[in-house]
Amino acid sequence: MEKYNAIIIGAGPAGYTAAIYALRAGKTCVIIEKLVPGGQMGTTAHIENYPGYTAISGWELTEKMKEQALTLGAAEMFGEVTEVDFSDGEKRVTVDENVISGDAVIIASGARPRKLGVDREDELMGKGVSYCATCDGMFFRGKTVAVSGGGNTAFEDALYLANLCKKVYIIHRRDTFRASPANVKKAEAKENIEFITDSAVCALVGEKSLSAIEVKNLKTGETASLEVGGLFVAVGRIPETEPFRGAVEMDEAGYIIAGEDTETSVKGVFAAGDVRTKSLRQIITACADGAYAGEAVGAME
Questions:
Q1: What is the rounded average pLDDT of the residues 144-158?
Q2: How far is CA 111 from CA 136, 148, 238, 286, 288, in A?
């Protein structure tokens, strides 16, 4: 059985940063990724809010982080984590059919956006369809866009976009919102935000990029077309935490409970990046989590 000082689950910004900090402290580590390096960062076409780069593609930034971690001595393993055992001092992780052990585990498996489930959503992702207003909002300056959702994230996205865009539609399935009254009031005060309630996006229109959306009123059954350059989907996220259920404490949504120090309910197990309970999920905050987790591993005897 292969053994490392740290097993890092997830090859995104949190995972790579954790590896860099642990390796610089003289620890051995392996980074496990089930799909492709970078996670959501790797599939983002343009990144303009990461310090040091005016603009860079997610894939380029991924490659730079990966190169740094591997140059320092990180091992790579591709496969899916199917089981973990954190019951004693030595942690065991099953990757497909292989079992590896470590003194510590850093869970940096991320969270994926919940999709609307309409035709061509994947095809138009990054071509008008986005799941992160703070990441992509700048590309829609002066345009008309729509936000689908009724929670705080949707309203915060809409308020952010209202400062950049000509017009913002908030489309929600009900006529009441889960967002806080304060956020609703702020949105109502914005002249360029329009509410479309009891409705859902039912179709996406556009050849090479999004040009319009079809919206269906769920009470009357009527449909209407809205010309928009962008659609921001804010209907929730799904943390990639299934293999860790029962092994560490989680909140009701499935996020791993951990503070800024990234420590979980189990000694020697850390949660970094989008997978942990936090208010802001961005590349830069994932890196910060990775630094905390990697530094903690580096301090372990």
A1: 94
A2: 18, 19, 5, 11, 17
Q: Are 15 and 9 in contact (CB under 8 A)?
A: yes
Task: Provide the pairing of β-strand 193-196 with 212-217.
Answer: unpaired
d(CA 126, CA 46): 9
User: What backbone phi and psi angles, to 5 degrees, belong to 203?
Assistant: -160, 150
Q: What is the pTM of this model?
A: 0.78
- Catalytic positions: 132, 135-136
DSSP single-letter state for residue 125? B
In this prediction, residues 186-200 reach a mean pLDDT of 97
206 Cα distance to chain centroid? 26
Q: Name the helix (H) or strand (E) containing 103.
A: strand 98-107
- Cβ count near 29 (within 10 Å): 26
For residue 38, the one-letter residue type is G
Residue 198: Cβ-neighbour burial (10 angstroms; 0-12, 13-18, 19+):
middle
Pairing of strands 212-217, 98-107: unpaired
Please write the tens of the pLDDT for every residue from 73-125.
999 999 999 999 999 889 999 999 899 999 999 999 999 889 999 999 999 99
Task: Read off the pLDDT of residues 1-51 as tens digits, 9 standing for 90 and up.
Answer: 899 999 999 999 999 999 999 999 999 999 999 988 998 888 776 788 899
Residue with tokens 């949660």: 271
